[in-house]
Amino acid sequence: MLMSIKREGFAAFLHERLIPIGTVALAILMLWYVFTVVLNSPFERDQAERAGVEISTTQLVSNTMAQKRPILPAPHQVAVEIWQTTFEKKITSKRSLVYHTWVTLSSTLLGFALGTTLGILLAVGIVHSKVLDKSLMPWIITSQTIPILAIAPMVIVVLNAIGISGLLPKAVISMYLSFFPIAVGMVKGLRSPEVMHLDLMRTYNASRTQVFWKLRWPASVPFLFTSMKVAVAISLVGAIVGELPTGASAGLGARLLSGSYYGQTIQIWSALIAAAVLAALLVVAIDLIGRSVTRRMGVVA
Amino acid sequence: MADNTVIQTNNLDLTFETNDGPVHALKGIDLTINRGEFVSFIGPSGCGKTTLLRVIADLEKPTGGDIQVNGMTPEEARMKRAYGYVFQAAALYPWRTIGGNISLPLEVMGMPKAEREALIKKNLELVNLDGFEHKFPWQLSGGMQQRASIARALSFDPDMLLMDEPFGALDEIVRDYLNEQLLELWAKTKKTVVFVTHSIPEAVFLSTKIVVMSPRPGRIHEIIDCDLGDNRTLDIRETPRFIEIAHQVREGLKLGHADEH
Q: What is the CATH number of domain A97-296?
């Protein structure tokens, strides 16, 4: 029997999730407000000095949280911006955060699908061929040591030159980042069967294909979902980075870029928060799918 | 080679190359096993009993001498699925139900579904696990898991059952029970069984022939006939003949250790 008391339902959710996560969130919010005041007050003091007026501390603090282009916007300013651009704009509008999130999400998902496929194929090759193991693995690792910011413009330019633009170039950059954890995780997963489990297949005189489908593949499923959780998050990073060099007009990356051109820090922060929320939702989605698949495979949760 | 000879080895040798130099795992093994026999390999760890079993199963290649299984090389015999192998652990695939695990060799052999299902039923009954077809391995006790793995090894009706310390990880009560069941199974199926163990009572209780092995290099010290007859029950362990054979095995193991120096 379990030694610890098992909490159930809402009590478990409260104790295991809400309280710890809530505490950290609260701490971050408080720190954020402190920094908002500290970072934005020099501008307010400067303004007051020029106008030749004394400014009270209360006034100063409240002013720092209501600037149009603050160095660091206050959390509630960002919240208001997110609310307005999410719910008060038509989702087809160029000013809608939903629209931009969708643009980024679509290249994220395409890149993630491509990266997962590529990663699995590479892992299958590496596990089954000594030559591929020796020749591919160093390149796979090297590929990740090059900063994506250096590669992204080249990918966009090269693909543009052969007439491919829009969704695919961004997805390719996503794929470039996301295939890596999949390949590494799946190499480990496909090699995870115990010697006894492999010997057993040998006693049945099973072919390599049979060993793959009946042993290596099912054994690697937990590894696949673990690496997919990492991969989906960096797919999103890839898609955002892919939007930067084109000076793209749509997507969360484009919001970040145009925000920084025009000093719209509130817009930048709302795009950042949208990206973070999107990443979290994607990871949770993969996690849920993974749990339901492994449960159906008889694994105790 | 006589008609009822299943396994015959002649001066069999196996040397593993390791980083610490060569290890002489088997040396000059001469052994004949006949159809329907229950043969145990017994000896201390490092005597090569498991290695010898793995050579018969073509899981290791000998480096010298001859071995024939069913009049073929071990590789040919393996390809013809001449044996079912039971490992030290049950080695059930955790993502397959008990029925699914028994179905595994049948799927590999390309058997149609209806036939597979009939065989799953039949073999689960054989090891007294009927009704557990849809359970996952973790829902079964260690002894039940090992019984399921025996059902899996028997599912495709091989001539031989090769068992590598199958009950070594189980407690004594479960082990006694499984030993009795195994004898019943052997009487019913008339398989040739090769059984690796380090338990003297287990070897004497089960076997018709006990191969006493000694280590460094792994070799056969003595082959003892275990003539306790058919239909053995656990009570047989109290009889003088049983104690006499057990004593002989124990002496053999001692001597095997002594002449290593």
A: 1.10.3720.10
